[in-house]
Hints:
The chain has helices at residues 3-11, 17-35, 43-58, 101-108, 151-158, 175-181, 223-233, 277-292, 309-319, 322-332, 338-345, 350-371, 412-417, 446-459, 469-473; strands spanning 38-41, 70-74, 112-117, 164-169, 184-187, 215-220, 263-266, 297-300, 376-380, 396-397, 400-401, 421-428, 434-440.
Amino acid sequence: xxxxxxxxxxxxxxxxxxxxxxxxxxxxxxxxxxxxxxxxxxxxxxxxxxxxxxxxxxxxxxxxxxxxxxxxxxxxxxxxxxxxxxxxxxxxxxxxxxxxxxxxxxxxxxxxxxxxxxxxxxxxxxxxxxxxxxxxxxxxxxxxxxxxxxxxxxxxxxxxxxxxxxxxxxxxxxxxxxxxxxxxxxxxxxxxxxxxxxxxxxxxxxxxxxxxxxxxxxxxxxxxxxxxxxxxxxxxxxxxxxxxxxxxxxxxxxxxxxxxxxxxxxxxxxxxxxxxxxxxxxxxxxxxxxxxxxxxxxxxxxxxxxxxxxxxxxxxxxxxxxxxxxxxxxxxxxxxxxxxxxxxxxxxxxxxxxxxxxxxxxxxxxxxxxxxxxxxxxxxxxxxxxxxxxxxxxxxxxxxxxxxxxxxxxxxxxxxxxxxxxxxxxxxxxxxxxxxxxxxxxxxxxxxxxxxxxxxxxxxxxxxxxxxxxxxxxx
Length: 475
């Protein structure tokens, strides 16, 4: 059941929050030994949350808009009283004494917190393996990755272990699992949902987030669920100097309305990226829905920038606590992921960093000029299909040798620009694997992304398509 319906039935006393919590915990018990979506399951807290909500409803008290809805928190968010590890051996026993901003706001909305969902170490790669927990599996094929770094969130929502989850996105980390797991996710405009970089300081080496790149994001099966979550999480906070003012977006109203006459740009490959043929085909068919069924004017375009991957990696360096993670590598050795140790161990130069800053400005200038011609921009979400677990990415796409991060060609540039972007299920392959379509809005154009997402969802619905693992494990 989607979160909007679930919350309504709970408020109307048609469903008990305690029964809902017990139902999802039972499903987790059946599925998680195979999928490893949760790094820390907080079953007792979930039941306490549900009991508190039920008592409030039965006594006639006002409750929040997500009252009784079970939710997973990505294991990069501080959750008070729940083990938070960042997927790192260095924090394997850490229990925060305070909540991240988004967690704090979701608590006020009376969610039922199920625990922490699995992530790659410090969110450094777009998959679901780390040194301390079992690797998260894709519910559509358990030999494959669900994507990441919000890997556990994707696997959990795709199988109904929870209807909603939250994640972070510094280079694609919410859109990747949405694409690989057949879900909806939106990366709102940079600063829409505050983060809390203040407590990730010298007390927590390595845990500092990529402050100018990371977005706090909802993940669900439906567009409306994400809109509801944003209505709860968005708005300014003095702990985040980048947070945007509230009030310019009607989150729930944004999912209404048609797209007739909307000007849509479509880039199949940015003009340079390798893209698997089946991805091109499925995304191309989804783009035709906008023109044929939704009344949009679609034009194929490319932004005209050279591949900015090297610049993006240098930006990550500039946003990373190099000294802190180097200290963790020195202390814990091979218990830190090899890709993390290799990244922080490079001889980064000042020129690489400043060149990346200049390149970021170039990318944004190209993008705003392009977006002045269009209401939204469509691309594939990813260049490839889900690949085997424990890989960082394929080394060959469309017959071309590529770097291990090339499959993220469509996601990370939108972190460089800070624009809103969503991933919607474009369709499924012949082997039954989901493929994502990315919908990018102009600067601060969150409402346009939600409206386009909801219209596409209505024209090409996906919410009733579930992975086969459910038939095998859930009666």
